[in-house]
Amino acid sequence: MTASAKDQVVIFDTTLRDGEQSPGASMTLEEKLQVAELLDIMGVNVIEAGFPIASQGDFEAVSEIAKRSKNAIITGLARAIPADIDRAGEAIKHANQARIHTFVSTSPIHLQFQMNKTEEEVLEIISKTVAQARNLIDDVEWSAMDATRTSIEYLSRTVEAAINAGATTINLPDTVGYATPAEYQTMFEQVIANTPNSDKAVFSAHCHNDLGLAAANSLAGVAGGARQIECTINGLGERAGNAALEEIVMALHTRGDVLPYACSIDPSYLTRASKLVSAVSSFPVQYNKAIVGKNAFAHESGIHQDGMLKHAETYEIMRPEDVGVRATSLVMGKHSGRHAFKDKLAELGYELGDNALQEAFRRFKDLADRKKNVYDEDIEALVEDQITIESE
Ligand code: KIV
Ligand code: ZN
């Protein structure tokens, strides 16, 4: 299937809203502007720039991003409260393309303990608040918070009410990261089938990573009929985070054979975006993080290094340069083999005869057993030392 024949998936980035809700991840206005600019350049379709009623700072960030962004739709979050919706409308009003994103809880546990409202009361709130947002703007997203712990029957009624009131995107979040991929896919299939006007809106997946399933669930949501995915750079977000944008984008790129959906993100910006968000949020990226971790394209074991030197596809399913990494790295350590060691020596400008190579390799293994990280300088010192001994 060619890219043009694939269904397009809208990428909705919420690094600056759900991501910033991570305890300790707050960003300054300047930092948010930098992140938004990069998101816009790399092809994100919708940028959720903040929660305008939450603070004056959030309002200013959303409104400044709305003024500056060139390509993306800019949205701000609003609870199902008239003042929130007005504030969000005010913050995004200067954007080239703008959206209001409003939400309300739908699960029994949230209705009882968080809202103290009946199902019928919540249906009324949805109709009123979505209509209010729609009076301000044509592009309105409505989210059913805690959708995955809501009955399909009631969820379908809420979705029908939101679409009747003018919602153009319907988001069904896995707010607490509880769903499994099969369940999440089925939820979309059933809600879309049960809601008479479901063809009037784009459905959206929004997954949290409490069980480490956020990216898998998002893709399952698409298999079930969603055509928008909400995600964050580095998977930043509440608790264990949101679905990671880079994982979703590269899954679509790498496995187009079984995931026949296209997105507009240029993956060569992924590493840069990851580094920027890590720096401004002060959240380090774990070394083994998929796609953007320091070790994502690094190999230490002898068998893997030998394979990589023969053909890159032996142990890599993506090319590092596709995601903005300069090259694969063969890390020299105690698991490295002779092939990689010889290659490293050549890279450092040494060509040793068989016996000298044998001896250097033995000394390198000794060193690697003692030292956690073996740097180029260590190998240079070791070879220079050996050359001196041999010449004496
Ligand atoms: O996780 C969630 O339910 C949310 C909503 C506000 C969309 O972030
Ligand atoms: Zn969320």
From TrEMBL:
Binding-site positions, Mn(2+) = D18, H206, H208, N242
Q: Name one GO cellular component term.
A: cytosol
GO terms for biological process?
L-leucine biosynthetic process
Keywords for this protein: Acyltransferase, Amino-acid biosynthesis, Branched-chain amino acid biosynthesis, Cytoplasm, Leucine biosynthesis, Manganese, Metal-binding, Transferase
Function of the molecule: Catalyzes the condensation of the acetyl group of acetyl-CoA with 3-methyl-2-oxobutanoate (2-ketoisovalerate) to form 3-carboxy-3-hydroxy-4-methylpentanoate (2-isopropylmalate).
Q: Record's family? A: Belongs to the alpha-IPM synthase/homocitrate synthase family. LeuA type 1 subfamily.
Q: What name does UniProt use for this protein? A: 2-isopropylmalate synthase
Q: Which organism is it from?
A: Pseudovibrio axinellae
Gene encoding this chain?
Answer: leuA_1
